[in-house]
Amino acid sequence: MKIALIAHDRMKEQIVQLAMAYESILAKHELYATGTTGSRIMEATSLSLTRFLSGPLGGDQQIGAMIARNEMDLIIFLRDPLTSQPHEPDIIALLRLCDVHKIPFATNLGSAEIMLKALELGQLDWREVVHEENEA
Fold first, then answer.
1. Is 34 annotated as contributing to ligand binding?
2. By CB distance 3.0 to 4.6 Å, which of 5, 18, 52, 73 could disulfide with 62?
3. What is the CB-side half-sphere exposure of residue 23 using CA atoms within 13 A?
């Protein structure tokens, strides 16, 4: 599975803690992250991931391009609901693309943990069927 890890500035510590707590699950998958989030996760864990640009500088759009090609299976985007974001339209576009392509999208620690536990139990394996259908 291809998983994107994204976090607003005030949520970066939480996503690092999440990556540390679920490192054994995440290590079995192909990971992607936006700029600083990716750096922070790599510094705190032994996880290897592909880093994109910072979200406001186009990283959200880079991940969006993968979603549009149905090349992403799960998005964990810990959003800061109390701070206005200048790239809010990019975030809304990510949500819309995930809805169009039926890609699970977690926006807070609670939903992220549920998604990661479901991933561990094989409950997101239906995404593999989606990939097979797109290849046919």
1. yes
2. 52
3. 12
Q: Are 112 and 106 in contact (CB under 8 A)?
A: yes
Q: Which of 60, 80, 90, 99 is catalytic?
A: 60
List per-residue pLDDT tens for the chain, 136 residues long. 999 999 999 999 999 999 999 999 999 999 999 999 999 999 999 999 999 998 888 888 899 999 999 899 999 999 988 887 776 788 888 999 999 999 999 999 999 999 999 999 999 988 887 777 666 6
Q: Is 45 annotated as a binding residue?
A: no
60 in catalytic set: yes
- Residue linked to tokens 């989030």: 37
**Is 87 annotated for ligand binding?**
yes
